[in-house]
Design brief:
The chain has 2 helices and 9 strands. The protein is of the alpha+beta class. The strands form 2 sheets. Strands 5, 6, 7, 8 and 9 form a 5-stranded mixed β-sheet that branches. The chain has a 4-stranded mixed β-sheet with strand order 1-4-3-2, covered by helices on one side. Strand 3 and strand 4 form a beta hairpin.
């Protein structure tokens, strides 16, 4: 079995152009292709982000039982940042909507920001390694 070197995640968005502006302008993604109004492919490091509007292409089609793809939910991509507080301040200044304030967990600090369609993105700043953790080999 051969695995691809990039990971693809598909988000359903209400407006592909607004999503492109958000991800490229605020989160450092690059636009790879935008062949039609209802689809775009963006990249950041080894992550490919596929954006589909409902009804556009195969991924935007309704299921046989009538359920239609829609933005939102809690499954999310996680983007690691060097300075979470500075990133949050910048995004808040640009009018971005957050689901909470910064929370501190065992691995570091995080916050969830919504894209223009309500899809969550977790911004994560790793904490310092505890004495019990062993470095990856």
């Amino acid at each position: 079995m051969t695995f691809m070197s990039k990971v693809s995640v598909r988000y359903i968005v209400a407006d592909v152009d607004a999503a492109i502006a958000f991800y490229t302008g605020r989160l450092g993604f690059q636009l790879e292709v935008h062949p039609a109004p209802g689809f775009a492919r963006l990249s950041r490091a080894s992550l490919l982000l596929l954006l589909n509007q409902p009804g556009a292409g195969g991924a935007g089609q309704a299921m046989p039982d009538g359920r239609a793809p829609a933005p939102g939910g809690w499954n999310r991509i996680q983007l690691e940042v060097d300075d979470l507080a500075a990133t949050v301040a910048k995004l808040k200044g640009e009018g971005c909507r957050f689901r909470s304030e910064i929370v501190i967990g065992n691995g570091g600090r995080q916050i969830v920001v919504d894209d223009p369609s309500g899809n969550p993105i977790e911004l994560f700043e790793p904490g310092s390694r505890s004495p019990r953790e062993k470095p990856a080999q």
